[in-house]
Amino acid sequence: MSSILAASFIHSSDFVAVLYIVAFSLFIYGLSGLTGPRTAVRGNRIAAVGMAIALLATFLIDGMGNWVLIIIALITGTIIGIPSARSVKMTAVPQMVALFNGVGGGAVALIAWAEFNDSAGFVGKPLTFVIPSLFAAIVGSVSFWGSNIAFAKLQEILPGHPIGAGRLQQPLNLLLLLIAIGSAAAIASGETASIYILVLLAASALLGLFVVLPIGGADMPVVISLLNAFTGLSAAATGLALNNTALIVAGMIVGASGTILTRLMADAMNRSIPSIIAGGFGGGGGEAGAEGAGEHGGTVRATSAADAAIQMAFARQVVIVPGYGMAVAQAQHAVRELATELEKRNVEVKYAIHPVAGRMPGHMNVLLAEADVPYDQLKEMDEINPEFGRTDVALVIGANDVTNPAANTNSDSPIYGMPILNVNESKSVIVLKRSMNPGFAGIENELYFEPMTSMLFGDAKSSVAEITAELTAL
Amino acid sequence: MFITNVAILVLAGFVGYAVISKVPNTLHTPLMSGTNAIHGIVVLGGIIVLGLGEDLSALDKGLLVVAIIFGTINVVGGFLVTDRMLEMFKSKPAPVKQDDEEQA
């Protein structure tokens, strides 16, 4: 008797609801752990436990079927997910996050699509079901396709510079948005033909493509964060439609936190989110940059690894300024070795971390942590900027736009007003760079033309290794 | 029911805001990756619709299977990659601790 009661309780909706409460409490607790360096690993695992409980609770919902398909899908997803997360290089993490984000958005859109088909066009469904589902379909689809473009750009399958229709871009995007919303309105007001959902999904897909394609690589961190927030919101909408508290809470927390993270990043670049979405950072900027290059012409000074080594060996303080170039060249371990060698010579070494250096906020921190650089040597922008005045050598490794003094001085520059690392205040600046090509934002860097700057051309990793070799030979 | 859910939605928004508003730059990437894993919870949506669906067409079953695969990749990959990133920070507990206290 009691076991029958127990069994019916386990499958009761109350029990499932209780497990969901446990699950989303663990999400919130885990997430708050993620905000501190010491509690972060545990926080992430706690959130993962929450996810496992939410999954378990879902299996207990009364009347579930199609087990074979569900299990096959879960196993397939796990088989794909584990190796890709295990084998990805730390430098490629940003595009991996973009990809994981994309599939989440794709899942949301597919669920909404299947529900539309299953109910023959949402027949007999209340608007409180239909509207969130349509919202989820649009946002999920935008997020899926947008994230894939972000992935392709970061993976360099597509070129990093903005691709777009120029002045036509905004009207085109607006038109696509209106088509998507129009189809949604038609469905909500009772249209049941599947052409409407197909048009809605296609217009949203194109919108996702066209919104991200014109965005320059420099803005990519902000875009990934924004798409992350979008997927969260669409998951919350799915939760509203399905009356599922776990989805509502988890989705909304991600939506809110992702929005804040996006704003923090945009603030760090002194750019508004709408202007980033409007795209063309590097579109119009590229032209301005090209003019700038003409003015300067040929005053760049090249240097050798030996010369750089001597300068640094006799410096009191060296500040290393890493950027995306370091990530691409996988130079973080070489950089660490160079720093160790300098420290043996009683040179003080610090790292200047710009909030948007690299392709994700904290990207540089992750890479340098991988190379065992002590945490306390990593200085954030506000902390390190007053120090450049008494820095002997600033070693810029593949960082471009975040060091461009035009952000402070040239009001015509597209990056004017963006807080930068004031490396040009150091006594000497050595820039490691592959070539004179402008950065992802497509803007010429005036720093390279300043008298205290010398350029060491080549792959960042081998350049750093050469300097280290010269240093040990001294 | 719907209004209760909207209330939960709004409150969750404020919780998300409150939890995240004080994060060091260093942890932005792991945090983005961690929240990314959490929205993989949509996998539950796929499971519920497929599990409770009666007379689903082959197309719909296919769509939902793909949705569950996608959601699972999101969850499993997201948590694992975050864990890998964070393990790197953990390997040097002493300086981390010191730095924290200085800033506090």
Explain the overall architecture.
The complex is a heterodimer of chains A (474) and B (104). With 474 residues, chain A is α/β, with parallel strands linked by helices. Chain A folds into 3 domains: 1-64; 92-281, no CATH class; 298-473, TPP-binding domain (Rossmann fold), CATH 3.40.50. In chain A, 61% of the residues lie in helices and 7% in strands. Chain A contains 19 helices and 6 strands. A 6-stranded parallel sheet of chain A has the order 3-2-1-4-5-6. The relative contact order of chain A is 0.09. Chain B has one domain (25-103). Chain B has helices spanning 2-20, 28-38, 42-52, 58-90, 93-103. The chains are: A alpha/beta (474), B mainly alpha (104). Chains A and B meet through helix 2, helix 3, helix 4, helix 5 and helix 9 of A and helix 1, helix 2, helix 3, helix 4 and helix 5 of B.
Write the layout of secondary structure elements.
The complex is a heterodimer of chains A (474) and B (104).
Chain A: H1 2-10, H2 13-33, H3 40-59, H4 67-87, H5 93-118, H6 127-154, H7 169-188, H8 194-212, H9 220-242, H10 245-268, H11 273-277, H12 283-296, H13 305-313, E1 317-322, H14 324-329, H15 332-344, E2 348-353, H16 363-370, E3 378-380, H17 381-384, E4 393-397, H18 406-409, E5 428-433, E6 453-457, H19 460-473
Parallel strand pairs in A: 1-2, 1-4, 2-3, 4-5, 5-6
Chain B: H1 2-20, H2 28-38, H3 42-52, H4 58-90, H5 93-103
Helix pairs in contact in B: 2-4, 3-4
